[in-house]
Each structure stands twice: as structure tokens, then as C-alpha cells.
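Cross-posting from the modeling subforum.

Setting up a comparison between two proteins and wanted a second pair of eyes on the formatting. Protein 1 (sequence, then C-alpha cells):
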Amino acid sequence: MTWIDLTRPLDRHLAIYAEADYRDPPFAVHPWCSIADQGYAVQRLDLGTQTGTHIDAPAHMHPGGATLEALPPDALIGPYVTLWPGQDVPQRAGAVLLFVNAPDGGAISRAQFDRALDLGFAVWVIAGSLQVQGEEPLFLHRALARAGVFLVEDLAEDPARPLPDRGEMIAAPLRLIGTSGAPCRVLARGMVAERGQSDYL
């Protein structure tokens, strides 16, 4: 029943999202006070709401979309089912989160995307990247935001590779109010069937 950490480390090696004319806020840790001076140590953090492994609220991509606090905690903890690029859209079958396992990137058709959206998940968790064939690069992000879906992304991809189709997942963002997202800790453990029972890897 080992939990696998799918969260990118927040350190000086962290890649920061950038385009030709835009860059997310840099990540940095600064000393604030020391044990020698104050009797305890505190550091100051500089980061953006979409730094590292994070969750996007609909407000990140859709004007008037819900901000982070609109998502209940129950939508962030529980069974997951996996959507693999190139395979059929899975059945929901009691899952709480839709996990897209595409560490090497992948694509699905618009019809597959629509079927996956129709499953009604409040949260999608993507390891790697997923494109919708024939659509612009940010179509998936914008379509999920318009549908009110929260998106967890920028996971550590290698630990996600061996996860099976079903298991349990925890996606725990900072409890920020009124924001377009937050850094997020993501843990998962896979489920395997053995002698007619369900056990966790």
C-alpha cells in the first residue's frame, strides 16, 4: 500500500512556464530569520499560483470561472481511473478523479475528449501532456475551464509511468481563496485485483 509522490520538487531546478512574451513568477526561497538571531528559522517563498505541480481552477482560463475555494475537498481524494492516449475512454465506475497518464505526451480525438468530459469528473489529473487532435494547443485547458473542471498538472512524470488503470489519489492544494490555482501535492497508489479482491500496490 505504498503511496507514490507525483509532485515535482520545489527547488532551484524547477522549470518555470514561459512563452515568447510571458513568464510565470520565478520560484525562490529567501532567509527571513534565523535560529541564531530569533530563536527559530523562517524562510520567505516567492512563487506563482501555477508554480510546479499545481491545480488550475476554471478562473485560470475562463473569465468568470470558479476560483479555487469552489472545489470541495471530497473531489480531491479518492479512487481514480486512467485515460490512456490511444485507448478507449474508460468507464467511471465509482472513480472520483480522472487520471490522464501521458508522460511522453499524447493525443485524443475530439470525440474521445467529449466522451471523457461527459463522464462528469470535477477534477482531471494529467501526467505529461495531452492534446486534442485538430485543436489549438490550449484547447483542452480552455474547454475544461468552460465546463467548470479543475485541472491538476505538471506532475513528476517518471513515477506515474507504472501506475495501473485504477487506484487511489490525493491532490491537496494550498487553501487559497479567490485564486486561479495553487501549488498542489499529489500522491497515488495503484490497485490490482488478486483472488477476487482489490489490493493496493
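Protein 2 (same layout):
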Amino acid sequence: MDVVTWARELAAVHLADAVPRRWRHVQAVADQAERASRACGPDADLLVAAALLHDVGYAPPLVSTGVHALDGARYLRSIDVDERLCCLVAHHSAAATDAELAGLAAEIAEFEDEQTPVRDALWWADMTVGPDGEVVAFPDRMAEVRARYGPDHPVSRALDKSMPEREAAVQRTEARLRALDQV
């Protein structure tokens, strides 16, 4: 079985029934990742698999620390998933900032943040899809997250702190896609 099919099946098992709204988001993020995959060369399937698994840490049985990216990455590592895929899940969409604000910086540091076009494309895909699976502009998605959580929530504080890094990843990905006539 190829990695994308495997990732889709694993994500569906954990998210489809337990958190259906999150599952809709994940499927749309995977569609966005598919759009960006040509900018990732031989890592195209890795990108789509990471998109399918990026929010698996929201599955109730997998929640441990409350930082879904870390919980998901730890779960994937526990079932012997490729380390690079675990790291992409751990660090998607500036999750290191969430972990830092939760006092879990050392724990997320167990996973390498590769800072590559694949990582950027995963961030772009996640940050251009709304909670119900609709494709949205990056500023609109960031505003939606802030509104959903409120200004004092740790998620909003992490968003504010990591905004330059998020914006840069989105801009780099969109530039790569423009170069391929994909936007």
C-alpha cells in the first residue's frame, strides 16, 4: 500500500467518526497539499501523507499533552512511522510555538523541524483551509482562528508570536507555486 493511501486510512480511523469536522478539514488540507505537491519533487507523497496525518493528535484516545501536533507525532512514532513524517506532523503550522507556550519546548524538540519546501507546503495547506474544509486566504484563516479562540487563549498567543514565520512559509510556498503556474 502506498504511503498516501495508508495515511488516509489511518487518519480516517482516528478522525472520521470521533471528530468529523476536523476530518473534513484534514481532507481539504490534503487536497491543498496535492495542489502543492509538484513543488516538492520526489517528496510529493510525503507532503500529502503529512497533510492527512497533521491533525491526528486531536483524536480523543491520542490526546496526551494537549498540543495536538506533539500528541500526533508521538503516536505516529509509537507505531514506527517514518521519522521524517513524524517530524513534519510535530512541527506543522508553527506548532513549536504552541508547545513552547505550553511548557513543552523540550518535548517538541525531540522532533526535527526540517524547514524545507515540504514543511512550508504543509503549513500553507493547513493555513489556507478553514475548519469545515473550505479553501480560504491565509489572512482570513488566521483571523478565523483568532476569533474562534479569543485573544487571550494560548492558541491565539501562539498565533501572534509565530505570525512572521507562518507568513514566510506561506509566501515561499505561493512563490514556488506561481513559478509552476499552480496558484
